[in-house]
Amino acid sequence: xAADSTGATGAYAAAGVDIAAGExxxxxxxxxxxxxRRPEQVTDASGFAGLxxxxxxxxxxxxxxxxxxxxxxKVMLAQQMDRHDTIGIDLVGMVxxxxxxxGAEPLFMTDYVAxxxxxxxxxxxxxxxxxxxxxxxxxxxxxxxxxxxxxxMAPEEYDLAGAGTGVVEGDAILGPDRxxxxxxxxxxxxxxxxxxxxxxxxxxxxRADLDLFSEVPELGGVLGEVLLTPTRVYAKDCVALxxxxxxxxxxxxxxxxxxxxxxxxxxxxxxAELDRSTWAPAPVFGYLAEKGGVGREDxxxxxxxxxxxVAVVAEGDxxxxxxxxxxxxxxxxRLGVVKGGSGRAVLNGEYRNG
Length: 354
Hints:
By secondary structure, this protein is of the alpha+beta class. Strands 11-13-8-14-12-15 form a six-stranded mixed beta sheet. The model is unreliable at about 1-10 (pLDDT under 50). Helix 2 runs parallel beside helix 5. About 35% of the residues lie in helices and about 25% in strands.
């Protein structure tokens, strides 16, 4: 967790970069990062790189998987609410839950935080959230960078990104080529919008003149806090499910919505027929649609609508898959079935009332 600290202290401080604050931020991060340590980590005394030993004896044909992402404009909402301890969980979810789509187990992550001014306590909160996300995913937070960008960003502004690496056996890579007609499509509930669609959310908030700090009874809390609900991290659940049942594919439902993302996990000659009546989207989605005057088509093309991850499993394993997920505390249900078609996911019917 290095801080950008190039240059003479006096001159650099005059330019707006506080090296001492960066060093204090690193010290505050350490206890958070320590929670994520895995036995494969190798200590690098210099701190310039993260080292991780791949246990090649454990795998026949190890294939590394990598993913990188950020959290988009949800960081702006965190800054408005002055709430910084959950946005890092969002970052991890966006990265590791892409990794597990291939069947990979996430091994480690690195992060990058850029800010207009390093406030050590705020940086520690952000990294603490990243560490919590890594803890939930079972991966190590092996390194990162905190960069101070005075002039390019306002003092209270920041952005963050991350990259993750996982491993999967070469003959166990999941994807469209494994999907078969008759497979069951299993939905896993989201915790809310996750980290997608926040440009539209902020547009709705501004146009409808909504108060982020107001209590909204139908949402069960303060609007801004509800909108900051962190992304659900499915990585451990997906790894466990793959070990127990015949999973053919996963789809991480992010920007673009359920149909567009699931289509990426289907072969060209099969469709996934999905039934809206199998679930009721969380109240936050109806609230946003009403306040923003957003129709169902646009809502479904922007948000996950309550489904954060999808598993395509052999029909004979569908009930077992639901039992495994229930045992892990994941709300899941039969969303649909795979049939002959042209590589599309199609939503039918009407949503169930909450």
